Amino acid sequence: EVQLVESGGGLVKPGGSLRLSCAASGFTFSGYSMSWVRQAPGKGPEWVSSISSNSEKIYQSDSLKGRFLISRDNAKNSLYLQMNSLRVEDTAVYYCVFGSYYPESSGYYLPPAYDYWGQGTLVTVSS
Amino acid sequence: QSALTQPASVSGSPGQSITISCIGTNSDVGAYNYVSWYQQHPGKAPKLLIYDVSNRPSGVSNRFSGSKSGNTASLTISGLQTEDEADYYCTSYTRSSSQIFGAGTELTVL
Fold it and tell me: CB 3.0-4.6 Å disulfide test: which of A107, A118, B6, B76 passes with A96?
């Protein structure tokens, strides 16, 4: 059974930093690109960033470049999101996601759809 | 990049069919066959309903179908059921190697 378990969310002041983690199991983690998607309260989902299986290709939302950095550790089956210079508008539930229909062996480094989502971790940026 | 355009709300009666539109540009929806649709119930993570314009993941009811024409994608739900009441989001891959979501459509089953 595929499991994606996020952790690391919480309350942080504007300008602060936070590192989210995602523990993956139940599939060949090193065979897929992984992504983060966030959803602000009452808003639609927003794609944040994706990383290829060997970390060589990283894709990021233009609006977040320079503040957020995605990384992964295949030995630990883990995905990370380092978030710096946090703003009130970064308040959201952050989901770890992947698309099983898009293995990298088929050339998908930025999966266009995600059939597996974690339960999400809430990040609240407030003074 | 602006979000894909979806109607804020749609409604229908049980048994009826409804269609939700998703309007993009020739840099996203019109450029690739990588449109997907998600259903989200309150307090839950989004659930993939349709990928690659018209493919259904295993376990998703065949009452859900997707299509695309030009820069507009559509999700049709036939035989509406009360449990279909939820928010629906479209998303597309873009020419700038990113993903863009729609703002969402709230479906009410009357």
Answer: A118
